[in-house]
Specification:
Helix Hairpins
């Protein structure tokens, strides 16, 4: 049996988490880039496959930023003082965000650069 009250309570926690993420500078930067991807996609009328890459690429980058923030919070709780393993965990999480952000950026370049060049040449 589906328990809708539990579901909506969980959904509330998820929105609280998103609210916390919105206070994170890097998360807001990823959202801004996602916004530009949406604007460029609408302007250049990209096809369904291109939309999938824009949305999935940005979604993964944004989600990985959330995972990174969660890992940092857990590490700070477990190890308030400096510890090499705490640094390692935080650095690996940050590196993973960078990897997904770069993959997303490469998708943007592959999709939008030819369209931007054609648009400029057509002026």
């Amino acid at each position: 049996m589906i328990q809708f009250p539990k579901f909506f309570k969980s959904l509330g926690y998820a929105f609280q988490g998103i609210g916390m993420l919105l206070k994170e500078n890097n998360f807001r930067i990823h959202l801004l880039i996602f916004g530009f991807g949406i604007l460029f996609g609408c302007f250049f009328e990209i096809d369904t496959t291109e939309w999938l890459f824009v949305i999935l690429g940005n979604g993964l980058a944004i989600a990985s930023e959330g995972f990174n923030s969660a890992i940092e919070a857990i590490v700070d709780l477990a190890s308030p003082e400096f510890h090499p393993l705490a640094k390692k965990a935080k650095d690996i999480a940050a590196g993973s965000v960078w990897i997904t952000a770069m993959a997303s950026m490469i998708c943007h370049i592959i999709i939008f650069l030819p369209k931007i060049i054609d648009w400029i040449l057509g002026l």
